[in-house]
Amino acid sequence: MLGLRYIQLLLVLVCSILAAAKSAVGSRTLVVFDDRVDDLSTYSEFFNLLKDHEFDVTTLELSDKSTKINLFERDTRLYDHLILFPVKGKHYSKQLAAKKLIRFNEDGGNVLALTVPQVSSDPIHLYLNQLGIYPSPRTQSLHDLFQDSTDLLFSVEQLENEIVYSNSNEKQQDSFNFGESVSAALLDNREQIVPILQASKTSFTSGNKSREASWTDGSQGYVVAGFQNLKNARSTWIGSVQFLSNKHFKQNQDLINELISWTLQEKAVIKATEVNHRHSGDNQTSYDELPYKVTDNVTYTVSLTQWDGQKWVPYVSDDVQFELRQIDPYYRITMIPQGPSPQDPTSELYSTGSFKLPNRHGMFTFVTDYKRSGLSYVHEADVKAIRHLANDEYPRSYEISNAWVYLASIATVIISFIAFVLFFISTPASLSEGVSTEKKTN
Amino acid sequence: MAPVMQKKKNPVQKDDIKKDFAEAINLALTSYKNQIKNNRKLRLIDIFAAMLVFIGIFQTAFVGIIQDNYPFNAFLAGFIICVGQFVLLMCLRLQLTHPFEGISKSKAFGEFVIASLILHFTCLHFIN
Amino acid sequence: MSEIVEKIVVPDNAVTANEESKVTSGKYVSFIQSSLKTLIFIAIIVASISSRLFAVVRFESIIHEFDPWFNYRATQYLVNNSFKDFLNWFDERTWYPLGRVTGGTLYPGLMTTSAFIWHALRKIGLPVDIRNICVLFAPAFSAITAYVTYKLTCELKDQKAGLLAAAFIGIVPGYISRSVAGSYDNEAIAITLLMATFMFWIKGLKQGSILNSSFAALCYFYMVSAWGGYVFITNLIPFHVFCLILMGRYTAKIYVAYNTWFVIGTIASMQIPFVGFLPIKSNDHMAALGVFGLLQLVALGDFVKTKISEKKFKLIMWVSVILIMVIGVAGLFALTYLGLIAPWTGRFYSLWDTNYARIHIPIIASVSEHQPITWPAFFLDTHFLIWLFPAAVFLMFMDLKNEHVFIIVYSVLCSYFAGVMVRLMLTLTPVICISGAVALSKLFDIYLDFSPIFSTKTTGTKKSSFMTVLTRGLVSASFVYYLYLFVHHCTWVTQSAYSSPSVVLPSQNRDGSMAIIDDYREAYYWLRMNTDYDAKIASWWDYGYQIGGMADRTTLVDNNTWNNTHIAIVGKAMASPEEVSYELLKEHDVDYVLIIFGGVLGFGGDDINKFLWMIRIAEGIWPEEVKERDFFVNQGEFRVDSQASETMKKSLMYKMSYNGFADLFPNGQGQDRVRQQVITADDVENLDYFDEVFSSENWLVRIYKLKDLDVEGRDLSDVAEFERAKNTKRSSNKKPQIELRV
């Protein structure tokens, strides 16, 4: 009994920590919405959750045409996160053009976008299209042949990404309610897309007009999809607004929590803190002191750290690889975690161990290219030259047994030459003799 | 001249030619013997030359036997110093038997020593 | 200018004066002769150096052209590091990502010499900038060349001819073309060494001296360390010996001279890392080896010959010769077949068959130096010597000594090869000078001999002597006039044709004054100042050395064309559509692409004109992806205007060259002044993957930066399209044409 209590206590503690998690990049959040489409009071639970996550929320209502949206002041980004509720009207297209959103995202801002079938939010659609997410157009909404109720339910099994939502014991819900009108999206093949929640095999989208072809059929459609750009800024699209509403909040809370955590970079954020490579051996001389040459033994290390919502902790995994490339990879070595790095205890040290450079000179790139769907990308590259053997680094002749023969013969020749010269000089008398014999023979 | 060169000519087939050759070789040999009989310097040169030929052939045979010319530079250095020294000796010999105008025998010998030293130095450098 | 002309005139007049002084032989003749000779030499040296300084006077003290930039860079490296470092220099800033084992793939003679001079000058308290040494290196060595040529010609005829030859070689444009101040190239030192080797060789041959032949071998070694053209000596001397043997002129001297030279020269040449075992393996060197062997046999034969009857000897000789030839040829084929000796190189074939290179090895043919020479170029380079030359060769036949055979062999061989390859004109020029001098001095010996005037009584009637004097005077006067013309011509050619550094281009303002187009340096300086130190620049290989030397940035390919595939990569990038090029260049970590565009200026040597070579070289490696045919319009023309072929318009080179070109012109009708075609803005498609970052003043150099990979992972063409679209664009209700997730 006591043990159970402890566990409960622990759970509470964990929950409180989870609730108090912070984003690794910042807390300034802008929520854009339209009074004509949604009333924010129906999402109060959601906003409470954001507050629990210590987000500094600013809301902006867009039905008034005079409202301006400034994501940047001069070249400084004003917000770290952007939450976009469906908004309609041309004004919105101008204020929040897709190009602006792209710029915001490229600058490192995270975007959580919501669309609904009733409203065509052009900029959001255009923005998502640029990411390779194609939500169904206005009028088309998702239906399921096997679900009669008006609300669409999605089971936990339809979740695709372990990192965004790991199915652990603490989470009780086995299905999520997305409400009545849900859009589904087609995703293209880009590696940066993180599919999160797949539509069921029995679902399809259809519009008012029966002749219209369906946008998605079965499991090719997605209702929640994430995207992480090369600068590790994230975007998540959710194909329903009711998913966040107070009405379904309790049922969806776990998923909402995880989606916020992932999108607004409270979790799955890793980075390399220290990249190093040096000669193997005791004194571990670095490249700057002694450039590499072919077949040298070299050790490469990288330290990875992870944001746990509060602080940076070591990131431990067994699939971090090192590559030595010259256009094509020469080596690919899976690195072994060595425990927390001595220099920086908050990160895990990975090492290749000592390995031999190829017997080929040229410019080589030392790369760690760690890209896992859902995690931040780590790409650390360092170009270094590997030089050829210098003329005095080949084995000397006297170190090669074969060459002794030749060395000996050279020595013989030289010694006998000296002897010859000495003899030659010491026999001057015969010179005249020789000449005389020559004369005779001639 | 060197006995090696004469060996090369032996495998000629036709009889009369063979006879001619034999005669030529005999004649050459006798005159050669005459030449060196009375001149110790020439004999000295020839002994040295024969030794060089032997060393050169020995090295080539060594490479042939072990089927590997791995320290190729060493082999070349060893071989070329033999060939080079041999050729220089021949030059000296020619100059001693038929002195050229303008070059006395002692001058020829001096030049020979200088050239040999250059040769030795480069070969030593080559084998390092 | 005129001052220099006069200085150049001095030697010729002085020569005549010298000869006249000889005629009026007096008490102090020998003293006057020697002092005059010294004077003449000083004049020759001053003339040869000063005529090479046109480049500095007209432009500035700057390294010229392409290869000298590399030599300069290497010299700097040598001066800043130890000799051992230099020998083992691995250059990671060229041929990215392969790098170049520079220390082992260059001829170090030039750099070592100038570094030696630099150190020596510092020792005696003259700290001269290494650049100035490099710039003035060639003129200084031309003076030495003049002296060595004098010695060589002395061996052939006499001092008079020697002085003339020295004067000729001092100012002949064919030699100046490669040795003006700033042209810091291997040839600058190589010609001096060439002459020195030949001089010692002929001396050694004449005297049968081991010492002189050893000197010849050492000069040969120096030559090997300085220039790839040493192969010329390697073949010429054996050929000379071979000719002599055929002519039945074998003597012990030949044996001594050749064997000494060959043995020491060969082992010494193998000390140069770049040459290595080539003298044993390459067919280029086989002739020397063959003649070496032949000479041993001939020597043996000669020994036997003195002992037995002539008739028998002939029989024996023929049988042996045939036998040995059969064995030799078979051996050669067997070795080549087994791959033990290097196959005949492409450059070697292109010597024999002018079309070989064009068909098989575009990279060789694309070098302008490897093109056949034209007749006007002969005249331009040697003026009246070119027609004295055959006469001189004929005169050589008149008294055919061994050394004359050498000159004949040299001239015949070299004339042929110079006809095949322009750059060999350089080796032909000295022999033209020497033989021209010999011919002229023979002529002067007869016609400048005015002694009949002073000794009329003994030579016959007054009238006939007057006629003799008249004709002699006429002939002499005409030749002196020719000499004057020659000097004039040389000065003119030197200052107009050969003094341009080609880094700065001369041009004329509208009012006729001289203007200097300095686009290259402007662009290279821009690169140096505005790009990352590790930035990689892709450009056609012609500019590799200059980028390395002036901009100090890493290049993909350069003028050391050792890796054809790597060059083909750049060729392919230039010839492919930009998305293909982008990927290829990104793979090689390229940051900037540099091209030369002459359309605005009317500069013919630009990249569009070289484009065909890039295509051909790329086609040699990727025949499926790059096809030369596609770049021509149907009529078989190479066009760049609106009628240009689709592939041409899509190619990166075209887009980069003409990007924004039409906008320069008020009516949007760009006039390409090189190809005389009109380009409108519609002809040039958008450049989506590259950003123009720099175009020089006259658009001669244009530099493009590769855009970064899109952060969203889109194709850059899609990005550009998205950026061009209006903000208010509505999202489409059409299903996207995408590859769906699997």
UniProtKB/TrEMBL annotation, chain A:
Domain OST48 middle, residue spans: 283-426
Keyword field: Endoplasmic reticulum, Membrane, Signal, Transferase, Transmembrane, Transmembrane helix
Pathway listed: Protein modification; protein glycosylation
Organism field: Maudiozyma saulgeensis
GO molecular function terms noted in the UniProt entry: transferase activity
Organism phylogeny: Eukaryota, Fungi, Dikarya, Ascomycota, Saccharomycotina
Functional note: Subunit of the oligosaccharyl transferase (OST) complex that catalyzes the initial transfer of a defined glycan (Glc(3)Man(9)GlcNAc(2) in eukaryotes) from the lipid carrier dolichol-pyrophosphate to an asparagine residue within an Asn-X-Ser/Thr consensus motif in nascent polypeptide chains, the first step in protein N-glycosylation. N-glycosylation occurs cotranslationally and the complex associates with the Sec61 complex at the channel-forming translocon complex that mediates protein translocation across the endoplasmic reticulum (ER).
Membrane topology: Single-pass type I membrane protein
Protein name (record): Dolichyl-diphosphooligosaccharide--protein glycosyltransferase subunit WBP1
Subunit-level organization: Component of the oligosaccharyltransferase (OST) complex.
Transmembrane segments: 403-425
InterPro entries xrefs: DDOST_48_kDa_subunit, OST48_MD, OST48_N
GO terms for cellular component: oligosaccharyltransferase complex
Localisation per UniProt entry: Endoplasmic reticulum membrane; Membrane
From TrEMBL, chain B:
Keyword Transport: no
Topological category with respect to the lipid bilayer: Multi-pass membrane protein
GO CC, alphabetical: oligosaccharyltransferase complex
Listed transmembrane segments: 44-66, 72-96, 108-127
Signal peptide (from-to): none
GO molecular function per UniProt: transferase activity
Cellular localization per UniProt: Endoplasmic reticulum membrane
Primary localisation category: endoplasmic reticulum
Classification via InterPro entries: DAD/Ost2
Pfam families xref list: DAD
GO process terms (BP): protein N-linked glycosylation
Metabolic or biological pathway, per its Swiss-Prot or TrEMBL entry: Protein modification; protein glycosylation
Keyword terms of this UniProt record: Endoplasmic reticulum, Membrane, Transferase, Transmembrane, Transmembrane helix
Function in brief: Subunit of the oligosaccharyl transferase (OST) complex that catalyzes the initial transfer of a defined glycan (Glc(3)Man(9)GlcNAc(2) in eukaryotes) from the lipid carrier dolichol-pyrophosphate to an asparagine residue within an Asn-X-Ser/Thr consensus motif in nascent polypeptide chains, the first step in protein N-glycosylation. N-glycosylation occurs cotranslationally and the complex associates with the Sec61 complex at the channel-forming translocon complex that mediates protein translocation across the endoplasmic reticulum (ER). All subunits are required for a maximal enzyme activity.
Subunit-level organization: Component of the oligosaccharyltransferase (OST) complex.
Assigned protein family: Belongs to the DAD/OST2 family.
Name of the protein in its database record: Dolichyl-diphosphooligosaccharide--protein glycosyltransferase subunit OST2
Organism: Maudiozyma saulgeensis
TrEMBL record, chain C:
Cofactor(s) this protein cannot do without: Mg(2+); Mn(2+)
The keyword Magnesium appears for this protein: yes
GO terms under biological process: post-translational protein modification; protein N-linked glycosylation via asparagine
A UniProt-annotated Pfam family: STT3
Residue ranges that the Swiss-Prot or TrEMBL entry lists as coiled coil: none
InterPro entries: Oligo_trans_STT3 (IPR003674), STT3-PglB_core (IPR048999), STT3_N (IPR048307)
Group of enzyme by EC: transferase
Pathway: Protein modification; protein glycosylation
Keywords for the protein's UniProt record, in alphabetical order: Endoplasmic reticulum, Glycoprotein, Glycosyltransferase, Magnesium, Manganese, Membrane, Metal-binding, Transferase, Transmembrane, Transmembrane helix
Family from the record: Belongs to the STT3 family.
Annotated function: Catalytic subunit of the oligosaccharyl transferase (OST) complex that catalyzes the initial transfer of a defined glycan (Glc(3)Man(9)GlcNAc(2) in eukaryotes) from the lipid carrier dolichol-pyrophosphate to an asparagine residue within an Asn-X-Ser/Thr consensus motif in nascent polypeptide chains, the first step in protein N-glycosylation. N-glycosylation occurs cotranslationally and the complex associates with the Sec61 complex at the channel-forming translocon complex that mediates protein translocation across the endoplasmic reticulum (ER).
Protein name: Dolichyl-diphosphooligosaccharide--protein glycosyltransferase subunit STT3
Organism annotation: Maudiozyma saulgeensis
